[in-house]
Amino acid sequence: MNAGQNGPMRRAPLALAVPGLLAVLLLAVPLLGVLVHTPWTHLPEELGAPGVLTALRLSLEVSLAALAVAVVLGVPLAWLLARVPFRGKAVLRSLVLLPMVLPPTVAGVALLLGFGREGLLGGVLDDWFGVTLPFSTAGAVLSSAFVALPFMVITTEGALEGLHPRYEEAAASLGAGPLRVFWTVTLPVLAPGLLAGAALTWARALGEFGATITFAGNLQGVTQTLPLEVYLLLQDDARGATAVSLLLLVVAMAVLVGLRGRWIGGAARRPAAPRPPEEEPDPPAADGTSTDADPVGGRGDKAPPAGADALAASVVGAVEAELTAAPGTTVAVVGPNGAGKTTLLRALLGLTPRARAERLELGGADVTRRPPHRRGVAWVPQDGALFPHLTALGNTAYSLRARGVPRAEARREARAWLDRLDVGHLAERRPGQLSGGQAGRVALARALAARPRLLLMDEPTAALDQTSRAAVRRLLRTHLAGFDGACLIVTHDPVEAVSLAGRVLVLEDGRAVQDGTPADVARHPRSPWVARMMGRNALAGEAEGDTVRLAGGARAVGASPVAEPGPALAVFGPEAVSVHRERPAGSQRNVWRGRVREVTALGGRIRLQVGPPDRRPTTAPRRQASPGATQEDLPEPGVVAEVTAAAAAELGLAEGESVWVAVKATELALVRL
Ligand SMILES: Nc1ncnc2c1ncn2[C@@H]1O[C@H](COP(=O)(O)OP(=O)(O)OP(=O)(O)O)[C@@H](O)[C@H]1O
């Protein structure tokens, strides 16, 4: 046990140690009893007795047949429970689990009442098809399947719930067709859960006794399986019973040791020192080819026609946007939560029914009708979605292998990509052994290795701390500089937008509200949200000439008039706002009254959030404005001002203080909406 992880090792308190040891004794004494009483010298002949061999053969046949029934019926049921929403799911799940807690003899009685000759369905089976289940081998299979099925269903359901569809979607975006995705991602990720479930189901079926004897009886060679043989032997051959019990015990123990606790959640844990596979296995070439060579994303592409846009798309549905980008352009996609940024990316990938690209041209090639894996659009999802069963190297080589690059060459190229992103030394690690930042770099290496025409990144630095964020931004800048496709980066970080992107696309409520250079968007934000994201102030109102009438009646005056009257924003930077305790004299055209709501330090400067003054009557005497001064109050949401620490100290600025704020008309831009 790792003392560092589980707290310091202490001597166990006696009050816990004694019952704990008694519990171990309770479990161990019967097993020891079997071992001690086993007739070791006569074991071969006891186990080789004809009755035992017949029972063993029958047990294997019955338990494997029950396992087959449980897999064929239980896996689809688990899939429904895990993936399809429907009413009454909790009741159905309880029904599935019932045989686990039902006394097996009661299960046998229930089976008789259901499938027996006089039973609900048994009568029909008998009359119409001449099928009699009780006291037949098929009946023994049925009763074993009845009690073992829940194990298959719950383990498979757990495994399916652990498999996020993002893995399969990411694989498609890396050029893998549906068959390859199934063999190289779905199955390997599910395999440990499915195998654990199958092993437990089989072990339960092998040990089944109560339901079988009640429903199918104890007929030698027909229904007399090993557990029943033990029961029979116990009457007159105790040595034989002990020998057969040992056999069943060894089988059960072997299954449990093989599972090593995976069933109770161990499957999700990473082994301490994994021997990772080199990379994903080749899927069988059912479609006559082992690869999904992609004429757009792959090497051997024809050069794009001269002058063609790297990206020309029109997206419709839950998100509506027109996009064009010249080769080498990075577009930052910004917008409030729920604006549709991820949906836009998924529409370009062809991965959502909620929105779709009505037209998608990449480097002059029309890929609108192509499935996701043939579009040449690679994707770095928010959490990276690295395949958990592959190493960093296997992940990075995935798209190369999907394109048919030979294994050794794919590994070499993948390693070079990992080196370029400074994670070459982690090539043999699995995703579970990487930090968030390292996983982000590997996910980026994996996407770049796919050599896409269009690279989509969903908040690539969101999970990182400030230092790694800056480092990954630098890396991105370097790699995007050499990338001649188009790149869309979803971000909430204005620094990322400004430093990485040549263009900013603003989405709000599923619509593109602005598309321009970062400087343009910062200077003339077309919504208060964008202005705030860019660190600017934006007061909304109705403009006419050079004046905006703000909500609440105050006015803002800009340097140049709007072309025509209508809704507009008055936009200015926090550094353009001066703060005063008295109404400032002088020529400033924009002077508003407010109250300091929040004071924060920002480097050597102080950032003030100034809101409208309180409307409720106050007992404190109001400062008298100079005669003739306007008494305009700041409207909601107020403004952000930035002043030097010295000025803040001199003015005695603190939360709750009344202030005046002023902005020169020359510093204020009017943006018509
Ligand atoms: N599968 C879905 N079914 C129905 N609505 C969905 C689905 N996925 C997303 N939405 C809705 O579509 C809208 C856009 O979602 P999307 O994930 O694209 O937003 P986003 O801009 O990426 O947001 P965030 O910044 O929070 O990641 C949201 O209102 C969201 O609730």
From TrEMBL:
The keyword Ribosomal protein does not apply. Residues 267-307, 608-637 are annotated as: Disordered. Coiled coil: none annotated. Gene3D superfamilies: 2.40.50.100, MetI-like (1.10.3720.10), P-loop containing nucleotide triphosphate hydrolases (3.40.50.300). It is a multi-pass membrane protein. GO terms for cellular component: plasma membrane. Pfam families: ABC_tran, BPD_transp_1, TOBE. The chain crosses the membrane at residues 12-36, 62-82, 94-115, 135-160, 181-203, 240-259. Residues 298-534 form the ABC transporter domain. One of its GO terms (molecular function) is ABC-type sulfate transporter activity. The keyword NAD does not apply. Belongs to the binding-protein-dependent transport system permease family. The complex is composed of two ATP-binding proteins (CysA), two transmembrane proteins (CysT and CysW) and a solute-binding protein (CysP). Part of the ABC transporter complex CysAWTP (TC 3.A.1.6.1) involved in sulfate/thiosulfate import. Probably responsible for the translocation of the substrate across the membrane. This is Molybdenum ABC transporter permease subunit. It comes from Mangrovactinospora gilvigrisea.
